[in-house]
Design brief:
Transmembrane protein, mainly alpha, about 70% helix, membrane, about 100 residues, transmembrane
Length: about 100
């Protein structure tokens, strides 16, 4: 794997900031809004996530390619941040997993 310096890892941070904006918008401007089929959406997210994690196999099958590694790490972090953000927003807006 290619080492990626810490200053280049800001994309998940920005995805999280955008997710916080979406959450705040839905909570304040549309307080009655609920996601339809929220449990189905969460089930799909939970089912897709392990498949997403298995994409690392591409580095064991092929010869190492620098650009493939760079693109993979960029897309992996953004996709991971989006999956986690969607999960958190759906749970928070619909009131699932209350403690």
């Amino acid at each position: 794997m290619l080492y990626i310096p810490s200053h280049t890892r800001s994309t998940p941070y920005f995805v999280g900031i955008f997710a916080a904006y979406v959450y705040r918008y839905l909570k304040l401007d549309k307080p009655k809004f609920r996601f339809p089929y929220s449990k189905t959406l969460l089930t799909i997210l939970i089912a897709v996530y392990p498949l997403f994690l298995m994409t690392i196999q591409v580095f064991y099958v092929r010869e190492y390619n620098l650009w493939l590694s760079v693109i993979y790490m960029f897309m992996y972090r953004i996709t991971f941040a989006i999956i986690v953000s969607i999960f958190i927003i759906i749970c928070a807006i619909n009131g699932l997993f209350k403690g």
